[in-house]
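Hey,

The postdoc asked me to send both predictions to you directly instead of through the lab channel. I've kept everything plain text so nothing gets mangled by the mail client. Protein one:
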Amino acid sequence: MKKIVIATIFAGATMLMADGAATYATKCASCHGADGKTPALGKSAPIAGMDAATAETEINGYKAGTLNKYGMGATMKGMVVALDDATIKEVATYVSTLK
């Protein structure tokens, strides 16, 4: 029984990262790079390895229009405004896995 619970948790986490990876590939990689190590438009710090909580907070800030790091607020808002809370969490989790 214990193995089933652990396997279910692992499968759920893997699926969460897969969805986050897909969204990252379509919404983020063009500016931040596939590995998160590219300064977006030559302005921002690389995001690879950012912890999930910070990434989620920042994405939500851009979505709300309250964050404008590196003067990228309007650009980022346009990229994330349609993302729901679950998708933002998935992307943030994925970003935290980039090293």
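Protein two:
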Amino acid sequence: MRMLVSLLLVTTLGACTHQPLAPAKDDSLYQALGGQPGIERIVEGMLINISDNPKIVHHFAETDIDRLYQMLVEQFCFESGGPCEYTGDSMADSHTGMDVSEADFNALVEDLIAAMDAEGVPVATQNRLLARLAPMRADIIYR
């Protein structure tokens, strides 16, 4: 049920037209995620989950995983109000030609949620991060 609520949140919020969010005004989400070490563990867990997920692993076959890891850490840190700058490409640019479907996107979100669960991140905190990331959905699917 908890995953369904999170997926509905991401789907609903992500259906809006993407407009970049301003940096979080405080670092409470960053702290709740465990700061830099917590975010690094979440991203690592998510990438491990993706590597074991036959639904979406093919989308990452040609991906520089070390760079992806670094960019995701930067992005999660930035979006959660941490002291990071996101230096990666836009979501639209990095997903052009990938033809990511809604099912693919939802599978990735499930892998992220599983990684946060494994780190003991409370559901309310998970939903706060997902709400920050959700507007990017429109720049990711069907590109």
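Summary for protein two, as requested: Confidence is low (pLDDT under 50) at residues 3-20.

Thanks,
C.
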